[in-house]
C-alpha cells in the first residue's frame, strides 16, 4: 500500500509539472517612433516573441483647459507584420483625480484615437492595455473608466498593477479586466540615498506574499532599463535616461566616488545635458542577478503561473547591457 501511495504521489507531481506551461517572452515598446533596429529585430526573433506592447499615447491634463488630452502619440515608420500588437495607453493619475471627469467621454475618445492609429497603419488588435497608477482618491473614476472602455472598445482589456494595489486590493479595488500585469519595478522613491529606486528586495518582500491572495490572473513585467539621477547641491534636478555607467567610467570628467556614484569634475555638456562642477550622478540599473532574484521570488509567491513575462523595454541601449540568452534564462525560473 505504501508503494502505491508513493507511486501515486510521484505520478501527480509529474503530471502537475507537465501541465505547468512556461511563460512567453514579450516586450514593451516605449518610444514615440516605431522603427526596429537590427538588434531589436534579432532579439524578437531569437526569443520567438509573438506579441509586443506598444505605448500608443499618454493622457494628461491640458495646462490651459485642464481637460484630458493625448500626448506624444506613436508614429509608425515600418510595419508590424508578424507581431501581435497590444496598444498601451498611459493615463496620469491626476486625470483620474478630477472629480468632474466625464469618464464615458474619455473612454470613447481614447478608443477612437486608438482606432485612428490602427486604421492609419493597417493594424488589427484583440486587446488594449491601460497603464495608470491609480490611488484611493482616484479609484472610483478609474474603475468606472475601465468599465466604460471595455464596453466601447469591445476588446480584451488588461491593466498594469502595482505592488501596493496587490497588497491592499480590498481598499484600492480590482479593475474589471481580463488580466493584470504586475509591474515589478519602480519600488522605491527617486532619492539621493543609496537605495535603487527601480528594485529593492526588502521593499518587494513587504508586498510579494500578497500575490497568493490576489484574485486577478497576472502576467509579470520586469525591468531591463537603467537611468541616472542628476543631483545638485543635495537636490534632484532630473532623471537622465540611457546613461551608460561604463562610458562614465571612461570619461575623466566624471569621477567615481562610491559604487554607482560619480562627481562632475568640471562644468560641461554631456549628451546635450549641462553638468555643473560638483554635480553628482547616481546610476541605477538592473543586473542579471537582480532579474533572476525577481523571477524566483515571484514564482515562489504566485498562486498561478504567469502566461507572459513582459520586459520593459525593447531598446538597443537596454539590450546591450545583457547577454543574449538572458530572457530565456529568466522564464526558465517559472
Describe this structure in a few short sentences:
With 334 residues, the protein is of the alpha/beta class. It contains 12 helices and 18 strands. The strands form 4 sheets. Strands 1-3-6-7-8-9-10-18 form an 8-stranded parallel β-barrel. Strands 12-11-17-14-13 form a 5-stranded antiparallel sheet. It has a two-stranded parallel sheet with strand order 2-5.
List the helices and strands in order. Answer: HEEHEEEEHHEHEHHEHEEEHEEEEEHEHH
Our count of helices gives 12
What is the CATH first-level class name of the largest domain?
Alpha Beta
Rough shape?
globular
As laid out across the biggest beta sheet, the strand order is 1-3-6-7-8-9-10-18
Q: CATH superfamily of the largest domain, please?
A: Glycosidases
Low-confidence stretches: 11-18
Helix content: 25-40%
Record field, number of beta strands: 18
Mean pLDDT: 93
Biggest sheet layout: 8 strands, parallel, barrel
Q: Write down the Rg.
A: 22 Å
Structural class: alpha/beta
Estimated share of beta-strand residues: 25-35%
- Whole-number count of domains: 2
- What is the CATH architecture annotation of the largest domain? Alpha-Beta Barrel
Distance between the termini: 34 Å
Could you tell me the CATH topology label of the largest domain: TIM Barrel
Mind explaining what this structure looks like?
The relative contact order is 0.13. The protein is α/β, with parallel strands linked by helices and 334 residues long. The model is unreliable at 11-18 (pLDDT under 50). Helix 4 crosses helix 5. It is built from twelve helices and 18 strands. The protein has two domains: 22-226 and 285-331, TIM Barrel; 231-275, no CATH class. Strand 13 (254-258) and strand 14 form a beta hairpin. It starts with a helix and ends with a helix. The chain has helices at residues 2-19, 38-46, 93-97, 103-120, 139-153, 163-167, 169-172, 201-207, 245-250, 288-301, 316-319, 326-331; strands at residues 24-29, 33-34, 51-61, 68-71, 75-76, 84-91, 127-131, 156-161, 179-183, 218-223, 227-232, 235-241, 254-258, 261-264, 268-270, 273-275, 280-284, 308-312. It has an eight-stranded parallel β-barrel. Strands 12-11-17-14-13 form a five-stranded antiparallel β-sheet. Strands 2-5 form a two-stranded parallel sheet. This is Lipoprotein.
